[in-house]
Write a structure and sequence with these properties.
single chain, 8 strands, catalytic activity, Elp3/MiaA/NifB-like radical SAM core domain-containing protein, Elp3/MiaA/NifB-like_rSAM, rSAM_sf, RaSEA
Length: 386
């Protein structure tokens, strides 16, 4: 099946909506970083085991405390709330480097294959991670036993110069860059997600990574803001196909949770958004397996666990079957065996199908632009807030 990804009919109208959505997203953010938080200690660090490709590997996961995302436009993303406001509390490059050093003291001896380095923003944005700090971290990574370094960034911050710098320092070790495409649909990315990522910037970044023999980890959303569950299924399936056509076989699927102090939280509070049913996630995996059998998507399990997101609404079914359904999805992640999903059933699925049909016949009949416009009529902020 061929999809139309270029689905923006009125660019001028969409640009104005994006301006208002961005103003709102930035205006309601609230920092969760304590005023006395140490600037020389990371937000978190741990060793664990994760899937890398089709193998379980030992990982060291570090979340650095850095300035917030330079874009900070996405309607559902809580990460800017979990980063520093550099206007109120600036941080020096040596303090960022010290955070890294504090958990890499044993790098020469520690036996982990993958080093995952998150910043709650963009690793390649100089305003968030200064070049001198990146260089310092590259050098320690090269000295470690780890074979892979995974970082995250919006695609516009990837440049040839930064890839050359990484290659020159880490040598034959592998850099993996996680990039949130979120959706292959231009319209969905523009006003459901409100991301600055475009298909063009994503494809350019992917080509650049391949040129340097680096790897990409592409993220897709299941049910961006304003979408129905039916639309979410189609959007995710066609996005998996789009990545498959590009040569990206293993996308990471992130089912949307509702985090506080985000635009999505406003939608949820007004009853205009429900986190995706777990049945919706199952349907995405089933349909993508039939349509793109050589694609191997994996679902982010931590986004489905309430215990990992105490302040958020997470994707769910009913109280009886949610835990075992998430467990089945986790088993699917490990071996890609569809049998884990095919055997799932519960009486709440009838309620799901009924609600999905009702949603299709009501909200689903309203054009996406009109849904967003109606929301903005109520919540549009004055210009001074941007």
């Amino acid at each position: 099946m061929k999809y139309n990804y270029d689905d923006i009919k009125n660019p001028e109208k969409i640009a104005l909506m994006r301006r208002d959505l961005t103003r709102l997203a930035r205006g309601i953010r609230v920092s969760t970083i304590p005023e006395d938080a140490s600037l020389t200690a990371p937000q978190s660090a741990r060793d664990d085991h994760v899937l890398l490709g089709d193998k379980m590997v030992k990982r060291r996961r570090i979340v650095l405390l850095t300035p917030m995302c330079s874009a900070a436009t996405c309607l559902m993303c809580p990460l800017p709330n979990e980063a520093l406001d550099s206007k109120r509390r600036p941080i020096m490059p040596e303090e960022i480097s010290a955070q890294f050093d504090s958990v890499m003291k044993d790098a020469d001896d520690a036996d982990f294959d993958l080093l995952t380095l998150y910043t709650n923003g963009n690793f390649f944005a100089d305003a968030e991670v200064p070049p001198v700090s990146r260089e310092h971290m590259y050098k320690l990574f090269r000295q470690s036993k780890a074979k892979f370094l995974l970082v995250e960034s919006l695609p516009q911050f990837l440049t040839r110069e930064k890839m050359e710098e990484a290659k020159n320092i880490i040598g034959n070790k592998k850099l993996i860059v996680a990039i949130g495409l979120q959706s292959a649909s231009d319209l969905t990315r523009a006003i459901s997600v409100n991301t600055t990522t475009t298909r063009e910037s994503f494809e350019r970044a992917y080509a650049l990574l391949k040129e340097f023999d680096f790897m990409i980890q592409a993220f897709l959303m299941i049910k961006p803001p304003f979408l129905t569950d039916d639309e979410a299924i189609e959007d995710a399936v066609k996005s998996i196909q789009y990545l498959h056509e590009l040569g990206i076989q293993n996308p990471i699927l992130c089912a949307t949770r509702v985090a506080p102090n985000t635009v999505l939280a406003l939608l949820n509070k007004e009853g205009k958004f429900r986190t995706p049913w777990l049945w919706t996630i199952i349907e995405v995996l089933k349909r993508s397996a039939a349509q793109s059998p050589n694609a191997f998507p994996r679902v982010v399990i931590s986004e489905l666990r309430k215990e990992s997101n105490a302040d958020s609404e997470v994707p769910k079914n009913c109280d009886v079957c949610s835990t075992r359904t998430v467990d089945a999805i986790e088993r699917f992640n490990e071996d890609r065996n569809m049998e884990h999903l095919m055997s799932l059933d519960h009486e709440c699925k009838e309620k799901y199908l009924k609600e999905k049909e009702e949603e299709y016949n009501t909200v689903g009949q309203i054009p996406l632009e009109d849904r967003v416009s109606e929301f903005l009529e109520k919540h549009r902020l004055p210009e001074k807030t941007i």
